[in-house]
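Collaborator request, handled under Task 6.
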Amino acid sequence: MKHLFTLLFIAGFISNVFSQNNELQLKKQELENAKSSLTDAQKRVKTIEQEIAQLTPPVYWQKGGFGALNFNSLGLTNWAAGGVSANSVTAIGNIYRNYKKGKVEWRNNLDLAYGLIKNEGETLRKNEDKIDFLTKGNYGITDKLSYSSLLNFKSQFAPGFDFSDPTKDDNARDEISKFLAPAYLTTSIGLNYNFTDYFSVYISPATGKFTFVNDDSIAAQNIYIPATLNDNGVQFYNDRYRAEFGALFNAQFKKDLTKKINLTSTLNLFNNFTDVNTANRKNIDVNWETMINMKLTEYIGVSFYTNLIHDNDVTVPLYERNTIVGYGPRTQFKRLLGVGFSYKF
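Structure tokens returned to the collaborator:
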């Protein structure tokens, strides 16, 4: 009897082992079948995606932009710390249209801005005025490097006046800018390198920069075009037009930092090889613009803009103890912070 129980136990153990092995084999086979089905499904998905891509019309153009209307208001009554009440409104906008097909790329960007401010006791004055159009064509050499050509036009909409002398009556102030006075046109050919889809660098050893002052009274002030010397060493003025030839460096960063915050920053450096004043050939024209747009709600946003300029050929008032002692080149800086309505399209 004892031997019978032993045999039954061994038989049951062997049967259980065979049963487990059989179940394991079935699960392995089931896994292989599932993997095979997954592979077939993935192949099918890829095939359908390719078929959809072939049937979908290609998109060569990308377009968009934004507009904003910002308001600022400051009211002071019997304010011991001093200051003046002020109200301002600024409109800013951007439109872009970009084309890309194969190795060919064409990028177009237009920045516009106009603002007015009214300080208590003063007349209405503009505090922002910009027209900036850039068009750029690229032909790919590699995925990141391309031949490139660039054209950039800058000017302003409305007349601007010299407010440096606070004692002058506003009706007697000199007009120092208006549409096409000045205007700047830059044309160049070079190489463009895209480090990422949001950061690129453009270098041109052959750049023409043209300055126009299409108004006799503004041109006569020689704010934007400096005096030069003729062949006899006599100083004279080419009031309305100036051509420069040199090298250009352009770096552009444009990225959505978050879903609601966008940063655009552009740096332009230009060196004039042909300046008649040879000492001035060492100077580099700098123009650095940065714009941050932040959406608070669907239609309410905050805009922050800065612009740093240094051009040795542009003269501005030089002060000493709040008194103008002369005119000369200086680093110019502008900042603009606004809250208002904004719309992105």
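The cover message to the collaborator said: "The helical segments are 2-55, 216-219. The chain has two domains: 1-56, 60-344. Please let us know whether this matches your experimental observations."
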